[in-house]
Amino acid sequence: MDPLVLFGRVLRQLRKEAGLTQEQLALAAGIERNYVSLIERGINQPALRMIFKLAAALGTAPSEILRQVEAELKDSS
Amino acid sequence: MDPLVLFGRVLRQLRKEAGLTQEQLALAAGIERNYVSLIERGINQPALRMIFKLAAALGTAPSEILRQVEAELKDSS
């Protein structure tokens, strides 16, 4: 399965666990609101700096987000 | 410090530990040779799928590469 789709799912899950709307996450990460929606839907591909910005806004580590994506990849294979 | 620069350093270190040239890593990851050089020099920013391709070619996990970047970030702050 495409890591992009799984990243979107993990991001949505972490955002909801943090009790944030897409708008609040975008504001906290300093990015465009619709960009969060595009990433969550697996349409836009986040680059390295974006991953760091999103992780900081969610209060987690970038490696932790990717670790969860890897776990979902394993489950889906 | 910019995670991009640190990612380049960690990538170079992991590539050397794996005993690969830039060309060999690029071939294994299915990407352009000069792209490895551009990332290692902190010039090009890898996106999510590229991070997964590079990790697979190095036989490590994407989250492990980012964990090492985070450790360097901590050391540099």
Automatic annotation (TrEMBL), chains A, B:
Q: Which Gene3D superfamilies match?
A: lambda repressor-like DNA-binding domains
Q: Which residues cross the membrane?
A: none
Keywords of the record = DNA-binding
Q: Which residues form a coiled coil?
A: none
Q: Does the keyword DNA-binding apply?
A: yes
Which InterPro entries does the record associate with it? Cro/C1-type_HTH, Lambda_DNA-bd_dom_sf, TransReg_Diox_bact_type
Domain HTH cro/C1-type, by residue range, is 11-65
By what name is this protein known?
A: Helix-turn-helix domain-containing protein
Organism of origin is Duganella levis
